[in-house]
Amino acid sequence: xxxKAIDERKEEIINACEKLYENNNFKxxxxxxxxxxxxxxxxxxxxxxxxxxxIFLALFTREYDRWIEELDEMYDKNLEMTKEEFADxxxxxxxxxxxxxxxxxxNMYDMEENSRMEELIEFKRAYGNSMKMVxxxxxxxxPKKSEDxxxxxxxxxxxxxxxxxxxxEVTEKQKHAMENADVPFKYLSIYEITYKGILKLL
Length: 202
Description:
Blueprint: H1 3-21, H2 31-35, H3 42-45, H4 52-77, H5 83-95, H6 98-106, H7 108-113, H8 117-141, H9 147-161, H10 164-168, H11 172-180, H12 190-201
């Protein structure tokens, strides 16, 4: 089988996983259920991925790669930006990556623990490249910031991203529990949380 055919098979598996993840929890998705959404047999999946976690990790890697493309476009299309403009544009790129945020906040440990080292390295490379791209944007649009300030933004912004999804995507059960526990809650969208967070960090 050619590399192109292998890549196409992998992409089909990742797409099937992504589709299932829209309406199902990580724990409820199996290699069998992913296989049922592909055009080839479930056992064939093992030729490309050893565990379901590797499939999710590949989806995660793809999410980072797509985000990097958007960040690169943001970098190239703008000569300068105010804090508000930067926060707006960066928040918009994050709000399009709902799966990335969901995977970050809910399933990262399982994926990393149950994937082969080469798959994990590929994922970490995509993650690292996204950090470099965000830093590149900060360097371009805020040239007066010191190296320490740029580092601080990166190493606060990326951990901040872990908490966006569970706060923005609250289930009816969670809302009901918070009401009964007398916990105040104000709904904010992924964009709103990210935009306000970026402004604070800047």
